[in-house]
Amino acid sequence: MTEKSKLQPKRxxxxxNLGDRRIPKLKMAEFPNADxxxxxxxxxxxxxxxxxxxxxxxxxTPDGGLWIRTQHRVGRRTRENMVWPQVSLAQLxxxxxxxxxxxxxxxxxxxxSWPAFAARLDELKPKYYLTHVTAPTLENDMYxxxxxxxxxxxxxxxxxxxxxxxxxxxxxxxxxxxxLLGEPDLTLRDLLDHLENKVEQRPDNIKKLFxxxxxxxxxxxxxxxxxxxxxxxxxxxxxxxxxxxxAHRPFIPCLDDMPHPLHHLLPLHDYRMPMIKGPFTFIVTSxxxxxxxxYCIKHVSYQYTTRIRSPExxxxxxxxxxxxxxxxxxxxxxxxxxxxxxxxxxCKLMIDEGIDIKWTCNSRVDFVDExxxxxxxxxxxxxxxxxxxxxxxxxxxxxxxxINLDKAQKALTWARQAGIKNWGYFIIGLPHETKxxxxxxxxxxxxxxxxxxxxxxxxxYPGTPFxxxxxxxxxxxxxxxxxxxxxxxxxxxxxxxxxxEELLYWQKRAFREWAFRPGPMLTYxxxxxxxxxxxxxxxxxxxxxxxxQTGSAND
Length: 555
Description:
This protein is an alpha/beta fold and 555 residues long. It has 20 helices and 15 strands. The protein has helices spanning 3-18, 34-44, 87-96, 114-124, 138-150, 166-170, 185-195, 204-213, 298-302, 311-323, 340-353, 370-378, 393-398, 405-417, 435-447, 465-473, 486-489, 500-515, 518-530, 535-548, and strands spanning 54-58, 102-106, 128-132, 154-158, 178-180, 235-239, 242-245, 281-284, 286-287, 307-308, 328-332, 358-363, 381-389, 421-428, 452-457. A 7-stranded mixed sheet has the order 2-1-3-4-5-6-7, sandwiched between helices. Mean pLDDT is 84; it is low at 2-31, 69-79, 482-488 and 532-555.
């Protein structure tokens, strides 16, 4: 007699004793949708005056504030303790205001703990919750979605992780309801207008944006007035157990048509950058970059198109920030100097109008000239960050960087002669890296006129050519979960000739060799003295550097 046949009489006796209390068998279609009932119940309760239609969120960090999360160099623990303004959230808020009530929560900048964040959601009771999702912070971001959905909100995600991997993100994380693919601005507005039945109430400037950006655009309603979710471009959504990816939405062709970001919703005085005394913030001057770097995450959202704002439009936003008390601005762009006429025109306006601000930017060594750098310095530019990456030209060629070492030396020398400080970024561990090529990078970094140098281990972000090259060659470390914090705390790469441990060792050693020289040490001392808030950071940098001297890998 089998074990199953022995248990059968006992089961029948139990059911017989239950009598009328037996639960009736129902078809699945007869069960109500519990998720809808809970959500409707939560949203039908009286809402306080502080309640908002949507919360745009940069969630707390895993440790509640000590771990720094940036906007595009996302997820990495930044030695420079840069707290980057979440201007993308302020821009999205501007696309919704005033037709929707909006709150921006930058829990990272405010050093907000998870319990405090949950309490904030209880106060705001948002109907919709939008968060930026990145690979290194994926589970952290999804925990925020879980808290919001438990409070009745429809949860939305956008960013460089969900755009290339929408299904792979939504399947394991049921707390995420909808993804906004690529450029999220008009997709968010279109989605909310449909869900809230406000398509016909759009103001003229928003109507013009929709009409200009996509000649084929039309609202997505059926004949009976119900929403046809399949017709809303740029979203990924759930239909039962199925995940549906809609058609992508075209880019906004003219960035001048967009409303200026609602900067006043951000905690402006909590943003910090090394060597700047007091707070700073961003202005996004363009979107996209024509360069072909295989490792660059920026192409995931904007591909290789480039759209610029007019100098006059940028000046309007600069004066807005000046009136908010912001005298330190970072010209944030995938490549600030992508259009020479725009840069020269903007600098001329800044000089002519006497706005008197200090500003920084990024650039490539092949997108500047001596005259431009002199003009930028005259207009208030005092710091440029350069992506130099490697001191080996074969590695630069393989990564499609498009520069050579002579160009780097020349551009940084021009900047130094103009009175502009240089901040160099280097990458350890791009394909074909060896200990010899790493040494070349270290020695090259010492020869350049740099004020700060930072060395990162290469990160194969989903959607980049580098990511697919790593998969094809089986370079992912076997015991890591690349979609989580491993890309932040260490590396997911494990090359045949350079293990993950060796890559991390050489990253630390590169910075140590560059920094322990008289010039760089003086720079870090200035950082320590420039603002009281940087004291802890500078002290931490010193401790890290001392610890790196005990590395166990062989030289």
